């Protein structure tokens, strides 16, 4: 969950080279503060940017993608054009299977000390409902098979329950090709109602969680840049 603006150097440089202005705010003690604290820090600066630009795109790594969705609600309809979540735990991070609830809760405090309050906020017994997607917002969830921090069960919002994990295969029809990556749209009849139309980008290379912000080609394609 720990992140900083410098992690996005490659896509920032690529966007600037295309004449696209970029803002990369630091927040929440590198993303380790509680979710509400992070949101409170971000809403003011982003509101100013929306007033200046009219509409923005958001690219968030890990917790940043979920914060982006919540911010899209706070900023109002039409304020955010595209949201790209890189290894984002859209429905929370499920506690280890087979571990008694009491034992799992005992893990929360040391997790808060080592990783941050946001990690504790995301832990859950069952995957949560996806926050509603504002009208007109394009959401792209980028999933890496090499992500052991936020695996597909959390990073793919179309996986609605643990029951869907067993034997799950990414959708076969690619919609975008970029630098060897495929971005696939989950068919609506297979997608939970709360994320109809969300684009799920499965990278065909096992990119580790911490390196997802460096995937400039995939990020720019998801943004339509």
TrEMBL record:
Gene3D superfamilies (alphabetical): alpha/beta hydrolase
One Pfam family cited in the UniProt record for this chain: Abhydrolase_6
Domain annotation AB hydrolase-1: ranges: 9-122
Segment forming the signal sequence: none
Record keywords: Hydrolase
InterPro entries, A to Z: AB_hydrolase_1, AB_hydrolase_fold
GO MF term (any one): hydrolase activity
Protein name, per record: Alpha/beta hydrolase family protein
Species of provenance: Corynebacterium spheniscorum
């Amino acid at each position: 969950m720990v992140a900083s603006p410098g992690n996005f150097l490659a896509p920032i440089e690529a966007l600037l080279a295309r004449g696209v202005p970029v803002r990369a705010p630091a927040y929440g003690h590198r993303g380790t503060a509680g979710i509400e604290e992070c949101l409170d820090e971000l809403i003011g600066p982003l509101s100013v940017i929306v007033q200046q630009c009219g509409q923005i795109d958001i690219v968030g790594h890990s917790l940043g993608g979920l914060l982006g969705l919540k911010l899209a609600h706070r900023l109002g309809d039409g304020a955010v054009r595209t949201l790209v979540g890189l290894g984002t735990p859209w429905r929370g991070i499920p506690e280890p299977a087979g571990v008694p609830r009491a034992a799992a809760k005992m893990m929360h405090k040391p997790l808060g000390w080592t990783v941050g309050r946001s990690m504790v906020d995301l832990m859950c017994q069952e995957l949560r409902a996806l926050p509603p997607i504002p009208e007109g917002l394009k959401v792209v969830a980028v999933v890496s098979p090499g992500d052991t921090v936020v695996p597909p069960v959390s990073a793919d919002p179309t996986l609605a329950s643990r029951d869907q994990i067993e034997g799950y295969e990414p959708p076969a029809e690619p919609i975008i090709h970029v630098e060897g990556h495929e971005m696939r749209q989950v068919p609506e009849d297979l997608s939970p109602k709360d994320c109809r139309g969300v684009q799920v980008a499965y990278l065909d290379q096992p990119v580790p969680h911490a390196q997802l912000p460096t995937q400039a080609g995939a990020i720019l394609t998801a943004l339509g840049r």
